[in-house]
Amino acid sequence: MIEVVDIAPLASVQDLGRAPYLRYGVSYSGVMDRLALLAGNVMLGNADDLAGVEMQAFPCRFRFREATDFAVTGAGCTVTLDDAPVLPWWAGRAEAGQVLTIAAPRRGARAYLAVAGGIDVPVILNSRSTQFRGAFGGHEGRWLQAGDVLPVGTTEGTLAAPGFGAQPPDAALPADFAPDDLQPNTTAVRVLTAGEYELFTEESQQRFWATGWKISGQSNRAGFRLLGQPLDFAKRLEMRSHGIVPGIVQVPPSGEPIIQMSDAHTAGGYPKIATVIEPDLWRLAQAPLGSRLRFVPVAYKDALVAVRQAEAWVASLRRLSGQYRSLCATGRRP
Amino acid sequence: MKADEVRQIAAWLEAAGLDSFELTTPTARLRLVLGGVVAPVAEASRPEALPAVPSLAARGTGIFLDAHPWSDAPLVRPGQRVRAGDIVALLRTRALIQPVTAAEDGIVGAQLVAPGTMVGFGTPLMEFTPETRSTP
């Protein structure tokens, strides 16, 4: 069991989401940064689909009732276990009664706490993710509050102090596709052009690529609203609602793009100009409010290469973490 | 190095499907070749620059890092007093980052390898002067 001692708003229990239920109108839910939760689970030897805690505001404080292996990934936060510093992207062991504090990040936006055995809330519609609109899943279908007690799946912890780390993915999967004129405080993400790209004027198509779109304060797990000179339609089109997935970039009549994220509706009718590729969704998840985004066109086959690169990084971490944990378990910790 | 350690290394080599192994320490050089007798190794020249003071050595292989990849500040600075178990450096192997810890209380000295260098088991990483913890 983990006690939520202190929690800033907007923290929730999430896993990798409910993709199979999109067709029934149940939104995806799940973590915003899949790579970060996946890495945490992989470092601990958990199944990939176990749940952790997503934090979007800080500080957050958790007390471990029993000795527990844990990992903190995602944003570069100042993390301490009692008074001892914990490095970013680190897996360690907390003894019974120890308190883990995750303070405001110096880079990135969202931090993840994974524990060996996972946060063991009931599985509903194939997932432990919190579904806010339907108020189910996760911990009582809601954001976490101070005083909540989260169950942890049973497992044998094997980590010894001081644990081990993972190379943060921005180093392993560098944004070498970013344009040369990328401004500071700007995240580049690769996109495939979408069905209605041709509806925009040529000038607006160029501007879509050239603009550093600002992520507005009205952005959240459902979507990012972007600020910039509105895009112009060459031809207005009334569309029926159709299925949408996280990463889709829609342009409502106002002309300022919206990127659909984990808690997006499952259908929408705005024209789609592009789709952020799945292996870059973690970059979006770590882009803070007020920072800027650049869209970079990518060919479908290069998007598949990006998927494989991310998978290779996870596979490498899985194999090496497994070896390191077994060294710890046999007392031959390097 | 003790005979049972050599035997253990040979067993690991066999388990890993490797057929040869070389280890150089400040005082000895070991070469193991599985599956046959080979000509003796030419007399190893002793490394010239032995650390002047006791040093802290790598207990794994990887790329030596004196700071976390996300930090400009080194984990420890020369002259810093550390406790047994404190992380003083990191070794990165692809996606994995292993901690290098102080085996006992002491004071770290100068770095002996440059950050970004690939190091092997036993490579001295930084000077280290053990301290006896004063008992009150």
TrEMBL record, chain A:
Pfam families assigned to the protein according to its UniProt record, in alphabetical order: CT_A_B (PF02626)
Presence of the UniProt keyword Chloroplast in the record: no
Protein name in the entry: Biotin-dependent carboxyltransferase family protein
InterPro entries attached to this UniProt entry: CT_A_B, Cyclophilin-like_dom_sf, PxpC
Carboxyltransferase domain span: 23-313
Keyword field: ATP-binding, Hydrolase, Nucleotide-binding
Automatic annotation (TrEMBL), chain B:
Pfam families the record matches: Biotin_lipoyl
Top-rank taxon: Bacteria
Membrane-crossing segments per the record: none
Domain Lipoyl-binding, first and last residues per copy: 74-127
Annotated protein name in UniProt: Acetyl-CoA carboxylase biotin carboxyl carrier protein subunit
Organism this protein belongs to: Neoroseomonas terrae
Taxonomic path: Bacteria, Pseudomonadati, Pseudomonadota, Alphaproteobacteria, Acetobacterales
